[in-house]
Amino acid sequence: MACSALPASPVKHDDWENDTSAENNFKDERNDYQQPHLEDVRFVMKGLRRGGHDIAISRAISQIRSIRAFQIDMILGRLRIELDTAQDSVKAAADKLRAATGYTFEQYDLPRGPTLDLVVDNATEFCQAQKPHGVIEIEPLERVLSSQKILRIHYNATEIGAREIVAFYDALRPSQNIRWVCALPQLSTTTDSKRYDNSRIIFIINSILVILVILFDFLPFEVFKNPLFTHTSLGLTCICQVLVLLEILPGIFRVLLHSKMLHMDIFLAISTTCACAVSLTSYISRLRGQPLQQGSYFALSSLCGFMVLLYRFVSEIYGHTAAKLVSFRHLRTAEVHLVTSRIANATPNTKIISLPLLQYGDHFVVPPNSRIATDGLVVSGGSEVNELMMNGESAPVAKGYGSVVYAGTLNKSGRLVVKLSTLPHENTISRIAAISESTILGKSKTQVLADCFVITLVPVIAFIGAAISVGWMIILRYHDHQSWMNAAARAVISSTLIIVMSCPYAIALAVPVVVRMASRISLQHGIVVRDTQKLQVARNVTDVVFSKNGVLTRGIPTVVKAEFHKECSNEITQILYGLFKDRQSPIALAMVEWLGIQEMDNQQTDVTDIIDIPGKGVEALCTKGTTKVRVGNPRWLGIDEVESEHTLVCVEVSGNHVATFRLIDHIRTTAAAVIKRLQNRGINVHLTSNDNASVTRAIAFAVGIPPSNTHHSFAPSIKRDFVQNLQKKRKVVMFVGDGTRDSVSLVQADIGVQVNHNLHIHSAHGSDNEINNHVDATLMNPSKLHAITILLDISASVNRRIQFNYFWAGVYNIVAIVLAACTPWYCTIAPQFLLLLCNPVIGIQPIMQAGFSLGMVNFGKRYREEEREALHETREEPAFQLYSDHP
């Protein structure tokens, strides 16, 4: 959920300059309106309970002025805020959040680069000690474990390893009790483990007590007719009610004190307490020899409290499970079998160490039926590995000598010896988890309306319960001529059933569980969805606009011909080599490759003041800053462009056209099939390119895009205007392009899909080609264009499940309230038991199951089979261009 708070208009500075007293009086106000310094901060919320509390928390957080925007993830138990550090520091913001909500907030920030967290006795002595070569910084953390201090050591993993650091300090300071510890606050599974365990213990104790009460009340054994068991039932019922209050009262006090809103837990506490009071009344009436008409209410009262705890416990189970599924971090292994010595043709000797103590150069053993600790290269052994989390395919992949294996994947029956290639902080599972946890958790308009409806529904249900209770009291007293005591008892039980049976927060759960699971499944198929709202929008796409370069073509151009218009070709090649040798764009790589195979000396011309001009080219100065060089497309250089089947890259030195290079690229094998699938869905497909007409039309013809939807000579700004014009026609536009050259179009589109061209992992925070924070989704593997159709399929499935959840939650609440309201007409108490027992099963289970069932759908199976057939039947043919948009 996102919410913004904007300050009021500032006071004019002229008034302060003319009045010194005003300057003193308004000193604080002037500080409030200084230029904001916004920082993205993430917190783990400790002690957070699921079940509608996000609405109360949102209301409380929105009152803090320094927080400009925020998002709450109830599944992972975390908060992401946009903090104005000109008003509050991170620590001050955490204190205000704790005061506003009653929960504890701990900053969660994964460090960049390798770190090692150590627990020491004397932090000052440790920090002042000599540092080994390779240790960059020692950072004291605020957390304290018992009486010991936690220090975070930042180090260069290529110069020193984690075990070497521990050994160095053990030898340097033997008096210190040094040990490794995971000091980072963990998301999802471990954040709420204590709360989960407490809920489970309370629920188990309550279940045992309720079973005893039911036995004493209903089993037809004479021994249970003894008054002693009646006294025992009363005591057990009261204990059950105390357990219920212990479970829900802390949340009630938080909501009342901090959010000032009515929460369903308040009415649950009141109604179950009233039911317990009815049991006490029936007990007193029995002692007086005037038992109530329906007998003992012990079983029904205790069962009402039991259902409250069961509902909360079921919510915790589903939330705990969902957090594990979406986090990915639970796939990490805690320990690894490190190879200590190897003998040819023999099983290597190993020892078990903690995962963070791995270092470069290590070999480790992967036993059968265990997860792979980190990315690496198989050097011995053979097996099959389940890479479902990587590619969405459940079929195991054969691995042997020279095969690459990935962290978190599951080894099957064989035994593998793996050479480490990436440390745990930078491996595949860490990177995927970091991407998943950085998802923007915005709320759609539908969910915002649902939350508002829930806030309104809670007091409405309470009012309905009270009104029906009063109505039944009057009917039973004056129509059925029952005593006031008996009428009141039955009426109170009816209102209690209404409140206990209703499940308004099932409506609030209709979206988050489904969307979070869909985000995880998208990631399995190579789609990083940063804004989860787009998962509900994608199914409505009417137009898909492709940027040609690196999307429909492979992005690996080659120079097929060079034409020099001056005699100084050797000088030109030296200038070009100096310009492109350190650049990583596809055109630059193609030029360097071509220059490398030419017969030229090893000299190069120094080039300075290099400026990239997106959609046009690059310019620089050479020969000690006196000669201007421009390399780019002919239109930018003012050169007459002739029709050509190649991409043209022209070179201009001091205003003279000195050379022209012709490049080609290949169309992706799957491009035509993906475009055909989109067109079969009734989606209009467009192609935009900054290249010449011949190249653009040739590629459009090859992939099946009609000429009317093919647009050439489109600079980045023109592409954005084209998308905007489609939107003015009430089209829902998806733009698929490069994150740098097409950034303005990606932001403008309803759904912007960035194609990531660099999959090499350098840290848990990203790769060389950082994901654009402003795009809605990122296609991690550009060769798998079918991920676009998978995204549309996931979106359609998400919306079907959300609609089902809303429908089910609405129907269930209506039926439950009606049935509970009619309970005084029942002849026996059995139907009331049946209603209560159905509450957690019928109310919340289908909603949660609808989200989890997404994981059972194989979205990419059909597309993968089609692509395998295409790869066998066709070969990639040269297209006629690439990357003239940005040499």
What does this protein structure show overall?
It contains 29 helices and 31 strands. With 887 residues, it is an alpha+beta fold. It folds into 6 domains: 13-107, Alpha-Beta Plaits (2-Layer Sandwich), CATH 3.30.70.100; 115-180; 193-325 and 444-501, no CATH class; 332-427, Distorted Sandwich (Calcium-transporting ATPase, cytoplasmic transduction domain A), CATH 2.70.150.10; 522-544 and 670-793, Rossmann fold, CATH 3.40.50.1000; 558-664, 3-Layer(aba) Sandwich (Calcium-transporting ATPase, cytoplasmic domain N). The strands form 6 sheets. Strands 9, 10, 11, 12, 13, 14, 15 and 16 form an 8-stranded antiparallel β-sheet that branches. A 7-stranded mixed β-sheet has the order 17-31-28-27-18-25-26, with helices on both faces. A hairpin with a 4-residue loop joins strand 21 (617-622) and strand 22. Helix 8 (193-218) packs antiparallel against helix 9, helix 9 (227-259) runs antiparallel to helix 10 (264-287) and helix 19 crosses helix 20 (586-596). The chain is globular. The two termini are 41 Å apart. It comes from Periconia macrospinosa. The chain crosses the membrane at residues 201-221, 233-257, 266-284, 296-314, 448-475, 487-515, 806-826, 832-854. Residues 351-434 form the P-type ATPase A domain. InterPro entries: ATPase_P-typ_cyto_dom_N (IPR023299), ATPase_P-typ_TM_dom_sf (IPR023298), ATPase_P-typ_transduc_dom_A_sf (IPR008250), ATPase_P-type_domA (IPR059000), HAD-like_sf (IPR036412), HAD_sf (IPR023214), HMA_PCA1 (IPR056236), P_typ_ATPase (IPR001757).
